[in-house]
Amino acid sequence: MTEENPFKKITPELKLPETLKEDILQEIKEYTEDSQDTDSSLESQDI
């Protein structure tokens, strides 16, 4: 008789609600746009 580990079958799963997901995507988009602005301003300067 072999005992199975009950925790072995549990797979962690994270599902975000759509609204939260959209908020996160929006923040990422804004952050990347800010980063691009910073990058382009640095490129135009002679350092």
What's the quick description here?
This protein is mostly helical and 47 residues long. The longest helix is centred in the middle third of the chain and has 27 residues.
Which helices and strands appear, and what pairs or packs with what?
Layout: H1 18-44
SSE sequence, one letter per element: H
The biggest beta sheet reads:
none
What's the total helix number?
Answer: 1
| Parts with pLDDT < 50 across at least 5 consecutive residues | none
State the distance separating the first and last CA atoms.
Answer: 72 Å
What is Rg?
Answer: 22 Å
Describe what this molecule looks like in 3D:
The chain starts with 17 loop residues before the first helix and ends with a helix. The protein contains 1 helix and no strands. The chain is mainly α and 47 residues long. The longest helix is centred in the middle third of the chain and has 27 residues, at 18-44.
Key features?
47 residues; 1 helix; single chain; elongated
